[in-house]
Design a protein that fits this description.
Rossmann fold, globular, binds NADP nicotinamide-adenine-dinucleotide phosphate, alpha/beta, 10 strands, about 300 residues, two-stranded antiparallel sheet
């Protein structure tokens, strides 16, 4: 627990900045529930895997390779199924979708947790900027293909970031999805995290009336492998600062565990959470026209890269 946790209070949910994933799921029995989690092998994803299985859930644990997913499952020891899902490789996303469908288990939650941040130079896959392609398009493809496999009250939880505020001034740069007309490591990360929020909002709209929900969230700032692409000095500063001002990994995993499991959120959809409480994203994150356009463009990209 960081020093900062001592000064931050709790919000209306009864939880707050300092709450851990174990605390927000205390007393929730997830036996018989199945949840799909991306990025299960590292950082807040690994902690999410540990806590959801501790509460009795069967977690379909997705990682870039099946070996990584299996190792994560072995590490936490609960009931897991390991699947490969490299979000930047549509063929493996399709393989993951098939494997999930083949289990025949309705999904009580899909937690889109995997992500990459601040690649120093422009990287592309299939002609698209890699952070957007991995963090948004990969998850868009996964979730939209599995919507029919969601349980009656199934929840889609998309891990975004307050870094969405760093997206370009106009929001999603629809005329620069390749990144070739301008790229900055944090601006493009911000754009991908804005896309996460807009996707959750538009999905929530489409799911309205079905009992299924979609929400997005900021997990906090936590020292994990996410900074691996940044200047090593940032990593050193973060590791020194972590005990003082950053969330711990158990605290960082709390908001997604809360959004995926807490009974009070059964009918809550289209919201953005931070510190285990409802929050408000930036202006673009509340723009329905941008969300609608992103959905159309994302469908087009998925069709193109899977043709
Ligand atoms: N840490 C923070 O301060 C912070 C703040 C705001 C938001 N977030 C968000 O929280 C989420 C989890 O991040 P974290 O901090 O736990 O970072 P992390 O320790 O680096 O974990 C990221 C996970 O995503 C996986 N991943 C990366 N590229 C992938 C790909 N192409 N296909 C499938 N999986 C891929 C990684 O797999 P490998 O291990 O194989 O690379 C890893 O399992 C991310 O969405 C991030 O944007 C984090």
């Amino acid at each position: 627990m960081s020093l900062l946790s001592l000064f931050k209070g709790k919000g209306p949910s009864g939880f707050g900045y300092g709450s851990t994933a174990e605390e927000v799921t205390e007393g929730i029995d997830l036996s018989g529930r199945t949840m799909l989690l991306t990025g299960c092998n590292s950082g807040i994803g690994l902690e999410t895997l540990r806590v959801l299985t501790k509460r009795g859930a069967h977690v379909i644990a997705a990682a870039r390779t099946v070996d990584k997913a299996r190792a994560a499952g072995d590490q936490v020891g609960g009931e897991t199924t390991a699947v490969a899902c490299d979000l930047s490789e549509p063929a493996t996303v399709l393989g993951c979708i098939e494997q999930v469908k083949a289990t025949g288990r309705p999904l009580d939650a899909i937690i889109c947790n995997a992500g990459i941040m601040a690649l120093p130079k422009l990287n592309q896959k299939y002609g698209y900027e890699l952070q957007l392609f991995t963090n948004h398009i990969g998850h868009f493809m996964l979730v939209t293909s599995l919507v029919d496999n969601l349980a009656d009250k199934g929840r889609v939880v998309i891990v975004s970031s307050e870094a969405h505020h760093q997206a370009p001034a106009e929001g999603i740069q629809f005329d620069n999805l390749s990144g070739e007309r301008g790229y900055t490591p944090l601006g493009n990360y911000g754009q991908s995290k804005l896309a996460n929020i807009l996707f959750a909002n538009q999905l929530a709209k489409r799911l309205a009336g079905t009992g299924k929900t979609a929400n997005s969230l900021h997990p906090g700032v936590i020292h994990t492998n996410l900074t691996r692409n940044m200047n090593p000095v940032v990593d050193v500063v973060m590791s020194i600062g972590a005990p003082l001002v950053l969330k711990s990994i158990p605290q960082g995993a709390a908001t997604q565990c809360y959004a995926a499991t807490h009974p009070s959120l059964e009918d809550v959809s289209g919201k953005y959470f931070s510190d285990c409480n409802e929050s408000r994203p930036g202006r673009h994150g509340r723009d329905p026209a941008m969300a609608e356009k992103l959905w159309e463009v994302s469908e087009r990209i998925v069709a193109e890269v899977t043709a």
